[in-house]
Specification:
The chain has about 90 residues and is α+β, with helices and mostly antiparallel strands. Helix content is about 35%, strand content about 15%. A hairpin with a 2-residue loop joins strand 1 and strand 2. The N and C termini lie far apart (about 50 Å). The model has no long low-confidence stretch (mean pLDDT about 90).
């Protein structure tokens, strides 16, 4: 499909309805704009940017003595019991 659109004075471009419907792009959809050798590429933005484990390591600082796996499992089990007792699950 080939259609023509115009660039507004604010730098906005209206995408044809048929393209928006085919891609399920509704108002507010965030798009990634990428310049390529052939022109401009529009892609729907992902909900979260790609990350690696290294990006996340150390993001939640903990002050105090490290907990053992047994202590962590115990704390999780206690919280599950409390939530069940309160009717949350």
């Amino acid at each position: 499909m080939r259609t023509t659109t115009k660039l507004s004075s604010k730098g906005q471009v209206v995408l044809p309805l048929s393209i928006r419907q085919a891609r399920d792009w509704k108002p507010g959809t965030e798009l990634v704009v990428e310049e390529t050798k052939d022109g401009i590429l529009l892609r729907k933005a992902t909900l979260f940017p790609p990350t690696t484990l290294d990006d996340l390591v150390g993001c939640l600082k903990y002050k105090g003595k490290p907990k053992s796996l047994k202590q962590m499992d115990q704390a999780i089990a206690e919280m599950v019991k409390r939530r069940h007792a309160s009717g949350r699950y």
